[in-house]
Amino acid sequence: MNALDAVYPMLEAFAGCFTKPGARHLATFVVAHMALMGYPHCVTEVMRLTRIHECKHWTTPYTFLKRIVWSCRDVSQRLLEFIVDKLGLEGEVVLALDDTVVKKWGKHFFGLGYYPDPTDKNPGANQRRVLGHCWVAVALLWQGLDGQWFCFPLAALLFVPQVACAAGWKFQTKVELAQMLLERFVWPFQRVILVVDNLYAKGKLALLTLKGTTCVLVSRLRSNAALYERPSEDRKGRRGRKPKRGTKVTARQLYRRRSKHQLLKPRIYGSQPVIRAFVDILIPSRTLGDFPILVVIFPQRSGKRMNIFFTTDIHMDPTRLLELYGARFKIEDAFDELKTVGGFGDYRTRSFRSIKRHVTLSLVAYSLLRLLSVTLPNASDIEAEPWWHPAGPPSVTRLRRAVAKSMGISLSLCPGRNPQETRRPIRAA
Is pTM, for the whole model, over 0.85? Predict the structure, then answer.
């Protein structure tokens, strides 16, 4: 089975978001993002790979990214609906939300800012900043039958620093962008579990209300975060309104309460450690809200600090709470692969619209490959190397190599060599 024969039927689901010529350009860019592994995922390499410049004017792909009318929001919504339909999801869904930095430099790039580089492990990295773009992204997390989690990126919004905001551009924080990102979708579920890190553990996301959907927040707090006991119900003889919080306590003080300890055995990263944790219902700081939360506290490996995990669903199983937060790191793996071989940050266009559309198409290419890897009945049929049959579903990188081989280009990962041009045309979606 040819890899392209499995990819093209999936692109037909997006035909309603484009005109007929636009659907052909969508197929051109998405397939190119799948096949261009070690090469820049820019418009020039897309034209070189697909040879679209032989039948269209060379400015046509640029026009598709900058001027032709189509909505990234509609494409992301259709991607969500397609994934939900293929996986048979209903009732409840798990979402991961995080931001990632793409290094960029140049005078005319829109929205550049200085950010810490999480990949820099050299001494003094916390004091250095890199110039680039910061993208806030949301992804769907799905747990397979074997307990393994998979990530499907859906959409991303660009965070623009306040000093870089142009005239008429409203400054929005990362938390506000995350809220906007979630509210743009129409979620076909009764319950959405949002898993974030402590940067997004804010009241705006904890109190988020989606249309017809209950939103539950799962995250962690700083080791020195303020926690409060629930207020006493006995108020006989006391004047004034009922207090919202009780006594302020620290995480280490709470962990010393042995009566609230539980033995938890979450399945995280393929292992099942035994964790003795404090589990109770408390009130968070005012930054998060005035509602009760379920808190799980246990020491870190060093023993000097405490891990504080929480959820706004006080009836959630604490073991599931830890498993959900552990699954959040799948979005970090997706970011790493997108920026390494997925072309997430390889755009060279300068306008905001072209940049956003490039990022959206790279997310579509990654999510479709991931969906193909978990739904394909026999993955060995489209492997790039027929002699290689490792256990489990094929990775996204292996499927990229299969797409590249089916297009007749070189499988070399060396970006210094130009890919072998192919005469095979790109079909319409």
Answer: yes
